[in-house]
Amino acid sequence: MNYKTRNRSLNRWIEEAVALCKPERVHLCDGSDVEYDELARGLVEAGKITPLKKRPNSFWCHSDPDDVARVEESTFICSEREEDCGPTNHWQDPKTMHAKLNELFDGCMQGRTMYIVPYCMGPVGSEFSIVGVQITDSVYAVLNMKIMTRMGKPALEHLGEKGTFVPGLHSVGVPLKPGQKDMFWPCNLKERRIVHFPEERRICSFGSGYGGNALLGKKCLALRIASAIGRDEGWLAEHMLILGITNPEGEKKYIAAAFPSACGKTNLAMLQPTLPGWKVECVGDDIAWIRFGKDGRLYAVNPENGYFGVAPGTSEKTNPNAMRTIERNTIFTNVALKPDGDVWWEGINGAPPPGLISWLGKPWTPESGPASHPNARYTVPSRQCPIFDPEANNPDGVPLSAIIFGGRRSSTIPLVFESLSWQHGVFLGASVSSETTAAAKGEVGKLRHDPFAMLPFCGYHMGDYFSHWLEMGKRGKNLPRIYYVNWFRKGADGRFIWPGFGENCRVLKWIFERTSGSEEGKLTPIGYVPTSLDLSGLKLSQEESLLSVDKEAWLQECEELKSYFKLFDPRMPKGLLQELQQLKERLHSS
Length: 590
Prior knowledge:
Elements: H1 8-21, E1 25-28, H2 33-45, E2 50-51, E3 59-61, E4 75-77, H3 82-85, H4 94-105, E5 113-121, E6 130-136, H5 139-148, E7 150-151, H6 153-159, E8 166-171, E9 193-197, E10 202-206, H7 211-214, H8 217-233, E11 236-238, E12 241-246, E13 252-258, H9 265-269, E14 279-284, E15 288-292, E16 298-301, E17 306-310, H10 320-325, E18 331-333, E19 336-337, E20 343-344, E21 377-381, E22 398-406, E23 416-418, H11 422-430, E24 433-435, E25 447-449, H12 462-475, E26 481-485, H13 505-515, E27 521-524, E28 527-530, H14 551-565, H15 574-589
Parallel strand pairs: 1-5, 3-18, 4-9, 6-8, 8-10, 13-22, 22-26
Antiparallel strand pairs: 2-3, 5-6, 5-7, 9-10, 11-15, 12-13, 12-14, 15-16, 16-22, 17-21, 18-21, 19-20, 23-26, 24-25, 27-28
Helix pairs in contact: 2-5, 11-12, 11-15, 14-15
């Protein structure tokens, strides 16, 4: 069991983890394709994943029925001071949590292999990238980390002898006695905890094998820990897609956009425009690290190396580029399995075919509920995307011309509007609310606030987070313009007014041209709305409702925001409270 590296700090931590978790074997991952194939073969032989005949080097698996999504009630930010955690995170004293975690991890890997997974978030070699090391007893997690990050030897080379790293200790929490048969999907849900120590730059996850709880490079490092690092170092770690858009004349711009989970980020990131001559390319679909360049502009990097996308609803109509991306080298989790060796999910194409195995691993019938879990996922390398942006791995990132916020709102919020200033744009980001989806455990369809789409992912007090955004605006030059979009507004008949998907390029076109100064905007109390949105070829009912601003509805929105913002007292920035008051005044005088 040779698991020594060149980095002494890493070696000491590994020795501590081995002594605590007491694994039967230890394996230092090199990140090679050979290693991936061997680990996958072991899961196939154990009956835990199924190869897909229709998709080369792809697999189907399903989880425990109660280990299917992020669990915010089990996610903790253990800052040294409780007040630094903030009212939207769960806090526990770090010493108390460490004591409990030591108790849980003691002997938790008996009978199992401990995998040491070095990984790099961001391009290898970039001064802005961050190395993490995940220690885990989940082969499923190792396979997914291979896809989602730059994993193995390249990460160790980036780390070097004296580099720093973010340690992440993960276990499914199910030790095995000699001769004991393993669970199909090992997990220990009664003791499930996903814990972050922002000052220590440390992650611990126990009891869950599901994606965001077990793939520690994703939400844990790239958002919760990175947001705290960004606060301290003067940059932003955001729950945002990044896309490049080119007009018919060949001019290209980059846009970042933040939406709550399962509200269309991947569809927008991989958008196939319906307008002739326009082209969209994908830099990333979920996370953006945003820093100032030498020219004073904001530049964005996607720290990930793959997509962990929601499968249900993905189809040739909604996202043809995603369908091309997942044709090979993909892990599918909690979708349905077809008898011909392919996968199926609700929304992919028509009615369920006969002979399905459901996401529960049992023959599916119409009476047994959805064939796929609403939060079923695919994990796939980003380089397979047919519109993968050529600058996606640029270590300096791509320059942002616009930032978009949005949520799933059936009323009040227009299709698109532009902020009046950077501070007003930060107010819009702080005001994001959305009807909930299946990406998080809990009631679906309930309206909840989700500032900047970061509510579950900010590693410190959100009042301080708002202030950090405001301070960023004071430092930059030629800052991105900020927009708010809502694809989900419904008419009086209860139907969506806007067709969405590829037609969203019409909104991107207006934003593109606004940032060039070549498109008009009508000033309203809430911001600038389009005066001439390109609707050529579209047949819309209730078109006039798309961009309308209902004074009374917005005054109600203001009262709701006033109540919500009190949650962040006394750290709520005065500048955003001023924006709220000014919005009310503009509405009353309109």
